[in-house]
């Protein structure tokens, strides 16, 4: 069942485009069919997963203003302490989409980064949004508690260049058909983090198809990035 329809790419100058997002009834898969492909620079071979903390980040530069400068690069690990989330991030490339026929994180524990979004890197100089996708399910799955996030919750992304700190602005619960028309989610916005999963409320019948998304929208917090989170 579609999780969201196609994005009007002409209105999204920096987005690669998403034609459809699907959740399979059995495991809550999310599948993306892009209408165009722009592969972002990567920090690991396509399809591989980080199995632990990334290598020690290189020292971050400091701007004349005193703000830490972390060059945009691939997200390697996501942490959201408020919901007990701490896991490596895997690349999901255009080649994987083509081979598998869509966007399908390989495991319930996988956090997948959409590399087809032009400029969708994590950094203080990022030009677009970082999109991360994960499963939700009736058993343990990486984004099961995404629906429990509240404004003010802090998430961090580790890259090879350093750690970036983001603060949640809001959570959105959307009918799947609404995703493609929601400018807040699909516009090219720098220094933003969007976490997406299927919405499965407590007691949800696993034999029923999901009809909604749960989406967490976060913005980079420069002060927290400067001091650490």
CATH H level, superfamily name: Sortase
Q: What's the mean pLDDT score? A: 77
* H/E element sequence: EEEEEEEHEEEEHEEH
CATH class: Mainly Beta
Low-confidence stretches: 1-22, 24-56
What is the count of structural domains? 1
Largest sheet: 8 strands, mixed, barrel
Question: How would you portray this structure in words?
Answer:
The chain has 229 residues and is mainly beta. The chain has a single domain (2-52, 69-227), classed as Sortase (Sortase, Chain: A), CATH 2.40.260. Helix content is 7%, strand content 30%. It is built from 3 helices and 13 strands, in the order βββββββαββββαββα. The chain has helices at residues 94-100, 183-186, 222-227; strands at residues 2-4, 21-22, 31-32, 61-62, 68-69, 77-80, 85-92, 111-114, 129-134, 154-159, 162-175, 192-198, 212-220. Strands 6-7-8-9-12-13-11-10 form an 8-stranded mixed barrel. A hairpin with a 4-residue loop joins strand 6 and strand 7 (85-92).
At a glance:
The chain is mostly beta strands. It is built from three helices and 13 strands.
Give the arrangement of secondary structure elements.
Layout: E1 2-4, E2 21-22, E3 31-32, E4 61-62, E5 68-69, E6 77-80, E7 85-92, H1 94-100, E8 111-114, E9 129-134, E10 154-159, E11 162-175, H2 183-186, E12 192-198, E13 212-220, H3 222-227
Parallel strand pairs: 7-8, 9-12
Antiparallel strand pairs: 1-2, 2-3, 4-5, 6-7, 6-10, 8-9, 10-11, 11-13, 12-13
């Amino acid at each position: 069942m579609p999780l969201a329809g196609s994005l009007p790419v002409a209105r999204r100058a920096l987005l690669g485009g998403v034609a459809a997002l699907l959740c399979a009834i059995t495991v809550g898969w999310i599948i993306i069919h892009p209408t165009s492909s722009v592969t972002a620079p990567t920090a690991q071979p396509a399809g591989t997963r980080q199995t632990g903390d990334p290598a020690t980040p290189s020292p971050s530069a400091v701007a004349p203003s005193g703000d830490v400068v972390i060059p945009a690069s691939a997200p390697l690990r996501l942490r959201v302490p408020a919901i007990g989330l701490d896991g490596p991030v895997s690349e999901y490339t255009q080649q994987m989409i083509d081979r598998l026929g869509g966007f399908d994180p390989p495991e319930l524990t996988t956090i997948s980064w959409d590399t087809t979004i032009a400029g969708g890197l994590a950094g203080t100089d990022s030009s677009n949004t970082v999109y991360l996708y994960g499963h939700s399910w009736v058993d343990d799955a990486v984004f099961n508690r995404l629906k429990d996030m509240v404004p003010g919750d802090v998430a961090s992304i580790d890259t090879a260049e350093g750690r970036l700190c983001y603060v949640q602005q809001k959570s959105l619960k959307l009918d799947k058909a609404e995703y493609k028309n929601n400018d807040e989610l699909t516009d090219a916005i720098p220094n933003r983090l969007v976490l997406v999963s299927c919405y499965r409320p407590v007691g949800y019948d696993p034999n029923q198809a999901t009809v909604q998304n749960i989406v967490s929208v976060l913005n980079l917090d420069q002060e927290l990035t400067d001091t650490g989170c």
